[in-house]
Amino acid sequence: MSNFIATPTRTKSILNKYRFAFKKSLGQNFLVDVNILENIIRHAGINKETGVIEIGPGIGALTEQLAIHANKVVAFEIDQRLFPILNDTLAGYDNVSLIHQDILKADVVQAIEEHFGSNHPIHVVANLPYYITTPILMKLVRDKLPVESITVMIQKEVADRMAAKPNTKNYGSLTIALQYYTTAEVVMTVPKTVFMPQPNVDSAILKLTMRETPPVGVDDEEFFFRIVKASFAQRRKTLLNNLKSFLQDAYDKELILDLLDKANIDGKRRGESLSMDEFARLANTFWRARN
Ligand code: SAM
C-alpha cells in the first residue's frame, strides 16, 4: 500500500492529527484517489521538464503527485490553516513553493517570472474550489499567462458548458468566452466518491489548451463579447429579438435588420446556432456601422 496523501486512510490521519475542519465556503473537497490524480497529470502532459502552477493545494494530495512528476510546483492557497499541514506533508519534496494568496488577487504572471524564468514549459493544474471555478478560469485566460495549458477538476456541468459545440443546450456565452482563448476538452468524468467530503455535484477533468492567437478576428473584443452575451440573453428568443433589446439605444430595428442581412445571418436563428466565426462577423458588422 502506498503512503501517498491521496488515500482515505492517510488523509483521515492528517485531518485528525491537525484537527482540521473543512470550510465549505472555501470549496474544500480533497482528493483521495491516486489513480484520478495520475489521470489529471497524464492529460496535463506533465513531465520532469515542466513547471506547474497549482491552485488550492489543500493538504497536498495533488501537489505531492505533481512534485513527483514535474520539475517544479508553485501552489497558491488562501487558507492559512493549511500551511503548517502542507509544510509537514510535503516536507520530503524540495521542488514545491507555497504562496499564501487568493488566486483571484494574485499576480500569476509575475509569480511565473519569479519562480520559473523563461526556461520551462508551464502548465496550470488544479482541483479547483467549485464556488469560484468560472472567475478563476476567466482570470487565467484573460491574463494571457505564459502557460501551455490549464487542466482542472471542476463541476461536470460547467466543464460541459465550457467545451460545448454549437447547436447544443450547453453552448452559450461561457463557451465562446473560453474557446476564444483556448481549445477546450472534457477528458474524463469523475465520480463523487474520490473526494473527501463528497461534493453534491458530479465532476469532470477539463483541459484547456491555450491558443497562440484567437480563432477569429474581431475589431473590438469587448463589443464582441457583449454581442455574444446579448445573443444568449434569452435562449428561446430569436437573434433579432435579443439584439433589439440589447441594441435599441444605438440601432433602430431597420438598421438591425439591414446589418444582419449584411452579415449574412438570418435574424430568425437562435444564438445557440451561431459559430464563433458568425459571432465575429456579426459583431464586426455592427461595430463598423457605428465606428
Ligand atoms: N488540491 C487539493 C486536493 O485536490 O485535494 C484541494 C482541492 S479543494 C477542491 C480547493 C482548495 O482551494 C482548498 O484547499 C481551498 O482552501 C483552496 N481555495 C479556495 N479558494 C481559494 C482562492 N480564492 N485562492 C486560492 N486557493 C483557494
TrEMBL record:
Domain of life: Bacteria
S-adenosyl-L-methionine found in the keyword field: yes
Keyword Ubl conjugation among UniProt keywords: no
SMART domains with a match to the protein in the record: rADc
Subcellular location: Cytoplasm
Keyword annotations of the record: Cytoplasm, Methyltransferase, RNA-binding, rRNA processing, S-adenosyl-L-methionine, Transferase
Catalyzed chemical reaction(s): adenosine(1518)/adenosine(1519) in 16S rRNA + 4 S-adenosyl-L-methionine = N(6)-dimethyladenosine(1518)/N(6)-dimethyladenosine(1519) in 16S rRNA + 4 S-adenosyl-L-homocysteine + 4 H(+)
One Pfam family it belongs to: RrnaAD
PANTHER family: DIMETHYLADENOSINE TRANSFERASE, DIMETHYLADENOSINE TRANSFERASE-RELATED
UniProt similarity note: Belongs to the class I-like SAM-binding methyltransferase superfamily. rRNA adenine N(6)-methyltransferase family. RsmA subfamily.
NCBIfam families listed in its UniProt record: ksgA
Name recorded for this polypeptide: Ribosomal RNA small subunit methyltransferase A
Lineage of the organism: Bacteria, Bacillati, Bacillota, Bacilli, Bacillales
